[in-house]
Predict the structure.
Amino acid sequence: MHPVRFKKLALITVPALILVLAAAFYFFNLHNEVALEGPQGEIGINETSSAAWAKFYPAHWDSYQANYANIEKPSHFETKPYMKDIYAGFGFAFEYNEPRGHVHTIEDILAIDPARKKAGASCFTCKSTQVPEMMQKYGSDYYLMSFDAIKTEITEPIGCLDCHDPQTMQLRLSRPALIEALERQGKEVSKLSQQEMRSLVCAQCHVTYYFEPNTKKITFPWDKGIKADHILAYYDEKNFSEWTHPVAGTGLVKPRHAEYETFMNSTHQSAGLACADCHMPYTKVGNKKISSHVWQSPLNNIEASCTTCHRNGTDWLEQRVDTIQTQCKQSQELAAYAVVEAINELKLSQEYPTVNQGKLQEAMALHRKAQWYLDYVMVTNGYGFHNPTETLNNLNIALDAAHQSIKLALAARGQIQ
Ligand code: HEC
Ligand code: HEC
Ligand code: HEC
Ligand code: HEC
């Protein structure tokens, strides 16, 4: 290129580039404007009581207190009656409620159906600021303790210490299972970006996990990747089952609220968003602007959560969310009833005297797969909104595997070829 033309081009593009970068920086760092009240460094490094942080951060404390208003916890069984068949033989079949506000965790866990206490002290791991302290106190025995042995020691619900370093107020990770999973992936926890942290603080709890069979330690099954396929492959390789379905005879694995895994690589995540962008939007408290500390459905606060980016109005947004969720629910129901049918066919084949064992085993393996993909969607909050295409894809895999399982179960007792 001619040097003069190059200079001209540079004169236009360089300032333009700087402008674009400045705009991008402005949009993604809006939170830098947010007031950090209070003197830092006066809160004890192990201050588990959120009330003790209140005097330094009164606006955040007020916001946090507003979580008490979030009280609904309807049973999943009301809208998903098929869950009882699918979870037969497992604690979840006795009671399984929708989540509510973070401040209710202690109350909710103490009221849990006794059939769900089998996991022991581990149940408390995502419920209280006191958990890291308990892990220090009891070491690896923490995971082996019974539910009743620890329940009187834990009184604080989720709070400031779960996500913040009390000295600097920086976001921090307090749960070893996440830190270890990231380290096994070769990530340096001290070098995570602020935007990654704005999702990872949530990933301490809003993820799927399992209890490592020997140590009962909570472990994230992420070593092959964080998507449903990778996680099932991880369990299959270990020959791991969490329980045996009493009717179908199949060894099964149980996904749990995989919000983080589902959100990763979604449209929004790849566009640079984090959980906090929608669930902790900037809000005015008095004359201060803070990140909302009311963890709830963003639809309760759609102006703050969505319209900063989407200018089509709240009606459009509500309709989009409703369309996505209705379609996901419909597909979920189709897959769920197919899995229930597979369970019923497997039962008949198990009871059949001259059953073809080879085909029966194959049918059971397909039931395991179908139920995994279905359940992965079913227990992940948001009804598909966090990643609509991936959600429907998982449900397609579930539906196909369930149909194949039904066919093989029928073939195993000679009903079809
Ligand atoms: C579930 C995790 C979580 C909990 C619990 C939590 N915070 Fe935060 N907090 C965040 C996130 C995420 C941000 C945004 C940080 C950022 O963007 O840099 C934040 C930001 C802040 C800030 C910086 C200013 C702002 O508003 O962005 C303060 C101060 C703060 N929180 C105080 C508290 C206090 C006090 C408590 C307890 C009453 C608390 N937080 C509980 C996740 C949490
Ligand atoms: C220490 C564990 C923990 C952390 C960290 C955590 N959560 Fe939660 N969250 C929970 C639990 C447990 C519940 C269910 C509480 C209940 O029903 O008693 C919940 C419930 C919720 C709900 C449901 C509220 C409702 O109305 O249904 C939302 C939304 C939510 N969390 C978002 C977040 C976001 C966003 C972050 C990160 C900024 C986060 N959570 C960090 C454990 C956690
Ligand atoms: C683009 C915005 C957006 C982002 C980013 C986002 N969510 Fe959500 N989330 C939603 C919407 C919308 C819903 C559906 C709310 C409803 O059905 O009322 C939802 C629902 C939820 C719920 C269930 C709340 C309820 O009341 O049923 C939880 C828990 C949750 N999200 C956690 C997370 C976590 C954890 C992350 C990050 C890994 C995340 N979300 C990222 C928009 C978002
Ligand atoms: C920080 C900016 C930002 C925020 C906040 C945000 N979005 Fe988005 N949203 C995007 C971007 C970027 C896309 C990608 C497509 C595009 O460029 O429009 C997108 C796409 C979408 C789509 C279509 C893609 C799909 O997956 O179906 C829907 C629907 C949507 N957003 C709804 C919401 C809702 C509801 C909220 C609030 C809970 C929200 N968004 C919050 C930036 C944002």
